[in-house]
Design goal:
This protein has helices at 25-31, 80-90, 103-112, 126-130, 132-138, 146-153, 163-176, 192-205, 218-225, 229-241, 257-273, and strands at residues 15-18, 35-39, 67-71, 94-97, 118-123, 141-144, 249-250, 253-254. With 274 residues, the chain is of the alpha/beta class. The protein folds into 2 domains: 15-225, TIM Barrel (Alpha-Beta Barrel), CATH 3.20.20.60; 229-273, no CATH class. The strands form 2 sheets. A 6-stranded parallel beta sheet has the order 1-2-3-4-5-6. Strands 7-8 form a two-stranded antiparallel sheet. Residues 1-9 have low confidence and may be disordered.
Length: 274
């Protein structure tokens, strides 16, 4: 494997690939926007978890553009320690830790990793959400395991029931001074309109990316996070109007310092998307 790829500080769209499908690794690395997560947790049956740690020679491209992460099994499972050892020995860029329920779990994981390896903490339960701030303080980035979270609460995997949980994760990341969290997956791999709409909702909530489960989801997810032309036009006019020193109005609305700051952020994000 090649040297570590730095964590992208802005938008990120990790693409999952099952660890028991090494024939898909190169394709995933080629299709991913910025990172690939080889999954030894949910995607692999218990009887196969040890075997998938033996990745065939040549399954991972040496000239990959994507950051490579390993989603290990959760703390307390029989496979967790060996998964972490495998991540270190194989030279992964980082680890995605599922079902995180305390900051200490993240701290213990980081102590077992090589310096510079990234830790993404998946919050997937009510207990994990209740400790979101301490988890965010220890992790490099939070991610929302929305399907498991909905199961834990017994609620629908839909936008309204999960609204407060998403808001809590965004707030926790901000308080910790970490990159905006990554939203959970869209189950459909065929409905591009739904994937883009879910991504747009995540962007509006303040998320910094989205977890993906199929290469077909990459393009619509990127589209959902892309700043639209109307927003860009508004932001440009606000910034232009703010140069005179007074407090102007744009579209009949007062343009004060917070509005100008928001407009500048929109323009900065648009530049990163180009």
């Amino acid at each position: 494997m090649t040297a570590s790829v730095p964590l992208e500080p802005s938008h990120s769209f990790p693409l999952f690939v099952p660890a028991d499908r090494p024939d898909r690794f190169a394709k995933a690395c080629a299709a991913a926007h910025d990172s690939v997560v080889i999954d030894v947790e949910d995607a692999v049956a218990p009887e196969s978890k040890a075997a998938v740690r033996r990745i065939p020679e040549g399954a991972l491209p040496t000239d990959r553009k994507a950051q490579l992460l390993l989603r290990v099994n959760a703390v307390g499972t029989p496979w967790h320690r060996d998964d972490v050892g495998f991540a270190v020995a194989a030279g992964f860029d980082g680890v995605m830790l599922p079902k995180v329920e305390s900051g200490q779990q993240v701290a213990d994981l980081r102590a077992a990793l090589n310096p510079g390896m990234v830790v993404i903490a998946l919050v997937e339960s009510a207990l994990g959400l209740s400790r979101a701030e301490e988890i965010a303080a220890e992790a490099d980035r939070l991610a929302f395991g929305s399907i498991d979270f909905a199961w834990d609460l017994g609620c629908a995997h839909a936008r309204l029931p999960l609204l407060s949980a998403r808001a809590r994760l965004v707030m926790a990341a901000r308080l910790a001074g970490k990159p905006a969290p990554l939203d959970g997956v869209t189950v459909s791999t065929q409905d591009a309109t739904l994937i883009a709409s879910d991504a747009q909702h995540a962007a509006e909530m303040g998320f910094g990316g989205k977890l993906l489960i199929h290469p077909r989801q990459v393009a619509p997810a990127l589209r959902g996070f892309r700043t639209d032309a109307e927003q860009l036009d508004w932001a440009r006019r606000v910034v232009a109007a703010s140069g005179g020193g007074s407090v102007p109005a744009v579209d009949g609305e007062m343009v004060d310092a917070p509005v100008v700051a928001r407009a500048r952020r929109i323009l900065q994000r648009a530049e990163l998307q180009e």
